[in-house]
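Checklist before submission:
- one chain only
- standard amino acids only
- sequence pasted in full

Submission:
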Amino acid sequence: MLLDFDRLGSMKWVLIAIGSAVGLFLLLPILFIVALSFGDSQWLIFPAPGWTLEWYRQLFTDSGWVDSLLTSAKLAVIVTVLSVVLGLLASLALVRGKFRGRSAVQAFFLTPMVLPVVVLAVALYAFSLRVGLNGTTTGFVIGHLIIALPFSIISISNSLASFDTSLEDAALVCGASPLEVKLRVTLPAIHLGIFAAAIFSFLASWDEVVVSIFMSSPTLQTLPVRIWSTLRQDLTPVVAAASSLLVALTTFLMLAAAVLRRPRSVK
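Returned file contents:
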């Protein structure tokens, strides 16, 4: 028995070592980009002779970069709001509704997650050209919303499926209207699912590059598109600074989601 425990202990440390190595392998390119953004070399050289904040200064003083940053933030906020609202309505229909073809409808909503992004981008590009939405904020919102909506539906549907509907019945018996039940019972009970839907919807729009490349115009570009176009022309460290900004916001939101979704001990 002692030998078995020794083997289990050894296996535990082996698994920890393997997990740490895999995590380091995944994080190393990101850490490499962050280090490049602080290097004082005018080229993407690592290790750089010294350290500087010059590239961040150029990032926030260049009107082109700032406009792209603001465009990405504005689109992400709009897409987040629409994705959560539409995802909530769709989830209520899919989880609570009793109609034929419900599984097919659910699969249809999740299609953008399994469809190659470039195929979706080409289809959206052709549609946008035909109706005159290419290079417009509306076209961007539609394209990003199609990608973000499945994440919202999955998060909210999972919360609704695990929600005890007897609480709603009790509220109805106590005299609450159906609308009051949804607002004062259902929504607070599934708030974690709604929060997760908002986080993933925001990140889906904030980080999207393939669809954005097809939908962009010379006067309307998101930050990932600006990074991509700059990489094709000039390997300036400002690109590393912009990439680090994307990584920083994504990491912050993921950590916030993990903290808020962590079970809280009852005192």
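Reviewer check: The two ends are 39 Å apart (CA to CA).
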